[in-house]
Amino acid sequence: LPQRLASLAAAAQEEMWQSRQQLQAQRQEMARLQEELSRARQDGERWASALQRAQREALERDATRGAEQARQQELIRDMKARLLELLREKDALWQKTEGIDTPTPSPVPRDPGLCARCRKDFRLLSRRYNCSRLCQAKVCHTCSVDMGKHGRCCLNCYQQRHPQAT
């Protein structure tokens, strides 16, 4: 019986030692898990703070963008109003000038060696152009306008044809 008790005591001690070992391992595991939990909470707080900051910045950007859009829409309204005003003014001016007679082109000079506008003498280096419009006058380069493939015309005829160019 004493041997039996000694063997049971040894088995109980061995079991107690293993239980202490398991308890120690579980405590270490619990400490590690608590540390991870603490880090996870800190990360969560940082992410929540970053999210709140990003949301605040987004709201501020939206407010700024909304104000800028309102300013741009106001500017567009003002520009449209100014355009309508200018169009009315243009129409009024056009109606005023409708009855005004346009000047007739200058008559062709008798001397074909002079410019019909500035009376400059045509020479070897000053070329003579025939007006391709109304008057058929002979004009110098300075007193004529290039009309592209339609040739050149004198300033009087050009101004009659394009009154906005004056």
Automatic annotation (TrEMBL):
Question: Which residues fall in a coiled-coil region?
Answer: 9-89
Which superkingdom, per the lineage? Answer: Eukaryota
**Which Gene3D superfamilies does UniProt cross-reference here?**
Zinc/RING finger domain, C3HC4 (zinc finger) (3.30.40.10)
Keywords assigned by UniProt, alphabetized: Coiled coil
PANTHER family on file = FYVE AND COILED-COIL DOMAIN-CONTAINING PROTEIN 1, PDZ DOMAIN-CONTAINING PROTEIN
Concerning SUPFAM superfamilies, the annotation shows: FYVE/PHD zinc finger
Protein name per its UniProtKB record: RUFY4 protein
The protein's matches in InterPro entries, at most eight in alphabetical order, are given as: RUFY4_dom, Znf_FYVE_PHD, Znf_RING/FYVE/PHD
Organism field:
Urocynchramus pylzowi
Enumerate the spans annotated as RUFY4-like domain. 9-95
